[in-house]
Known about the structure:
Shape: elongated
Distance between the termini: 25 Å
Amino acid sequence: xxxxxxxxxxxxxxxxxxxxxxxxxxxxxxxxxxxxxxxxxxxxxxxxxxxxxxxxxxxxxxxxxxxxxxxxxxxxxxxxxxxxxxxxxxxxxxxxxxxxxxxxxxxxxxxxxxxxxxxxxxxxxxxxxxxxxxxxxxxxxxxxxxxxxxxxxxxxxxxxxxxxxxxxxxxxxxxxxxxxxxxxxxxxxxxxxxxxxxxxxxxxxxxxxxxxxxxxxxxxxxxxxxxxxxxxxxxxxxxxxxxxxxxxxxxxxxxxxxxxxxxxxxxxxx
Length: 270
């Protein structure tokens, strides 16, 4: 199997970020909340990325922040796809009032901007990582639902699905053995986009003060903590922005490669 250069680059950086996230406690040179220098020190041999607004090592904050950001984004994406894909496929197969009820509920939720909805919910609930994952995952599952239902409706009328129904196969079999394998291509491509959306979503919430709470770190919170330094030419707030951008590009390169690999599944079985 030959892997394109773009996919190799994407796999390398995606793997690197996840490796750093997993082994953060062993890779970070200092403690997460430990003040080790003056405010906004420049990069040096002691502090490779300099220090932040209160003298903490920025590299350490970035490592732990990446761990938190990637963990929340991954968990929320899994929740989003598990909920949205299952309900979308179920609505397409069952049809009738079940389809109408689920679709109208999803339409109602999608009519409210996700960021505003999340801000309202988080303003009245304790802001914990569990709550963040639940709010982000359930709100984003509406997008996955619409995609999964649209794809499943087309597949549901294929000959091999009709043949499975005539054989007496149950709905669970039809959903997971007939429709889902043939819907993987668009769902996999969408998963990469949703993961990046989750990274941006949690970073935005943290920047607005309703995401990951101090002293814990995430990339959006690091931008918030150091944003005043931009006025004085301090690049501390730009480092997490670069990390988010490179992660987004890398994941999309991998998703595009997987999409090309799975396109043959769309035609179904003979």
